[in-house]
From TrEMBL:
Pfam families: DNA_pol_A_exo1 (PF01612), DNA_pol_A_exoN (PF18305), HRDC (PF00570). This is HRDC domain-containing protein. Coiled coil: none annotated. Residues 320-329 have a biased composition (Low complexity).
Length: 418
C-alpha cells in the first residue's frame, strides 16, 4: 500500500461534496475595496512596479466574453499579490502586458482551471513558468465538486457571489457589481492554494500535483484544430457527403461573418440551423427561409449569403466532398474493439477496471490517475514485453507523468498479461 493510500484511508473525509461545517460567511466586497480598472500606460506602469516590489504567489484570473464575442480573448484580467493588493486591468485598452509578465516570470501563479485562462493570457503577454492550479489540486485531493465557489466554501468557509460568471465582459464601461465579482475571484485564491497544499501534503499527493502543474506550465500552445467545422453540434445526423459539404460551407461562411463582426458564431447562425439546411438542401432563399433558424427576422442579404454557401456545396466535384468520418490517428472507438480485435477489447476492459479501482482507492478521478486515451492506446498496441519495466517507457511516450506511471504500471502489467 502506498503512502497516499494509507493517508487517504486514515484521514477524515475533508473532501465531501457539500460543506459540512458552519454556514459559509458571505464575502461581499474585497478587503481594500473594488480597485479602479487600469486602462492606460501610466497606470499600468504603476501596477508593474507595485507587483514587482510585492512578494509571494500571485493570484491570476481572466474574464472572457464567450457566447458574445468572436474567439476567446480576455476582456478583464485580475491579479492579486501580497503587498500589492488587487488590480483589475482592461486588456482591450492595454493589449500588451508583457512588462507585467516579465516581472512575474519567476513567481508562482495561482489560477483556478488554468488551462481555460492560459491561452487568452498568453495572447496578451502573460505566460507563467510556475503555477498552482486550485481546481486540479481539488481533483487530486478528492473533492467531488471543484468549482471555485464550492471550493472556497468547503475549504475556507466563505461564500462568493455567483451572479456574473456568464455576462458579456466586453461591455464598456463594466458595471461596478461585475468588477466587485471579478475582484473577489482572486481575493482568496492564494489562501485556497495554501490550504490545498496542506491537504495534498497530508494525503501524500503534493508531489503528484507539482508534477501536474509543471506539465501544464511547460505545455506548448495547442495546434490549430483540423476541420473545426466537424464540431458543429448535431453533425452526426448528416450522413451524405454533399450534405456534409453544406455543413462545411455554411460553417466557414458563418465563421467569416462572426470574425468580421466580432460576434460569437452562434449569434450569427446556430448549429441547429446549419444542420437543418444541410439535411434539406434548399434550392432557393424562399425554401431556406422556411427552415428552423432562418426565420422572417433574417434579412434578404443574409439569406442570400447562406444560400450561396449551400449552392457552392451543391456544385462541388465528387472528389472535393468531405468524407463522412473524420480520420483520426490512433485506435478505433472502443465500441468497435470487440469485433475488430477481441483480445484488445479484453485488455481494455481489464485495464479500465484496474485503473478505476485504484483511482477509487486513492480518492481521485480516474482520468486524473491516467488519461483514458493513454489506456486505450496502450491496450490497442501494447509492447511485446508487458512487464512493468517495458510498459513504463511506453506510458511515458504516451504522455503519462512519472507519478502516474508509478501508480499504474504494475496493475496495467497484470491486466495486459492476464
Amino acid at each position: 500500500m502506498t503512502d497516499a493510500q494509507q493517508t487517504a484511508e486514515a484521514s477524515p473525509d475533508l473532501t465531501a461534496s457539500e460543506p459540512s461545517g458552519p454556514t459559509p460567511v458571505p464575502l461581499l466586497a474585497p478587503r481594500e475595496g473594488v480597485p479602479p480598472v487600469i486602462a492606460d500606460a501610466d497606470a499600468l506602469a504603476e501596477v508593474v512596479a507595485a507587483f514587482a516590489a510585492a512578494g509571494g504567489p500571485v493570484a491570476v484570473d481572466a474574464e472572457r466574453a464567450s457566447g458574445y464575442r468572436y474567439g476567446q480573448r480576455a476582456y478583464l484580467v485580475q491579479l492579486r499579490r501580497r503587498g500589492a493588493g488587487t488590480t483589475l486591468i482592461d486588456p482591450v485598452a492595454c493589449p500588451d502586458l508583457s512588462a507585467l509578465g516579465s516581472v512575474l516570470a519567476d513567481t508562482e501563479w495561482v489560477l483556478h482551471a488554468a488551462t481555460q485562462d492560459l491561452p487568452c493570457l498568453r495572447d496578451i503577454g502573460l505566460v507563467p513558468t510556475r503555477l498552482f492550479d486550485t481546481e486540479l489540486a481539488g481533483r487530486l485531493a478528492g473533492f467531488a465538486r471543484v468549482g471555485l465557489g464550492v471550493m472556497v466554501e468547503t475549504v475556507l468557509g466563505y461564500s462568493l457571489e455567483k451572479g456574473h460568471s456568464a455576462v458579456d465582459w466586453s461591455t464598456r464601461p463594466l458595471p461596478e457589481p461585475w468588477l466587485r465579482y471579478a475582484a473577489l475571484d482572486v481575493e482568496l485564491l492564494v489562501d485556497l492554494r495554501n490550504a490545498l497544499e496542506d491537504e495534498l501534503r497530508r494525503q501524500g499527493k503534493l508531489e503528484w500535483a507539482l508534477e501536474e502543474f509543471a506539465a501544464i506550465a511547460a505545455a506548448p500552445p495547442p495546434p490549430p484544430r483540423k476541420d473545426p467545422w466537424r464540431r458543429t453540434s448535431g453533425v452526426h445526423k448528416v450522413r451524405r457527403r454533399r450534405q456534409l459539404a453544406v455543413v462545411r460551407e455554411l460553417w466557414t461562411a458563418r465563421d467569416q461573418v462572426a470574425q468580421r463582426r466580432d460576434l460569437s458564431p452562434g449569434k450569427v447562425l446556430s448549429d441547429a440551423a446549419i444542420v437543418a439546411a444541410a439535411q434539406a438542401m434548399p434550392q432557393d432563399t424562399r425554401v431556406l427561409a422556411a427552415l428552423p433558424g432562418f426565420g422572417t427576422r433574417m434579412g434578404r442579404r443574409q439569406l442570400q449569403l447562406w444560400q450561396a454557401a449551400i449552392d457552392r456545396a451543391r456544385e462541388l466535384a465528387e472528389s472535393q466532398l468531405p468524407q463522412p468520418g473524420q480520420q483520426t490517428a490512433g485506435p478505433p472507438p472502443p465500441r468497435a474493439w470487440a469485433e475488430k480485435d477481441p483480445a484488445a477489447a479484453a485488455r481494455l476492459a481489464a485495464a479500465r477496471a484496474a485503473v478505476t479501482a485504484h483511482a477509487e482507492t486513492l480518492r481521485l478521478p480516474q482520468e486524473n490517475l491516467l488519461a483514458p486515451d493513454v489506456v486505450r492506446r496502450l491496450c490497442w498496441e501494447p509492447p511485446t514485453d508487458r512487464t512493468p519495466s517495458a510498459l513504463a517507457p511506453a506510458l511515458r511516450a504516451l504522455g503519462a507523468r512519472e507519478w502516474q506511471i508509478g501508480q499504474t504500471v504494475d496493475l496495467l502489467a497484470r491486466a495486459l498479461t492476464d
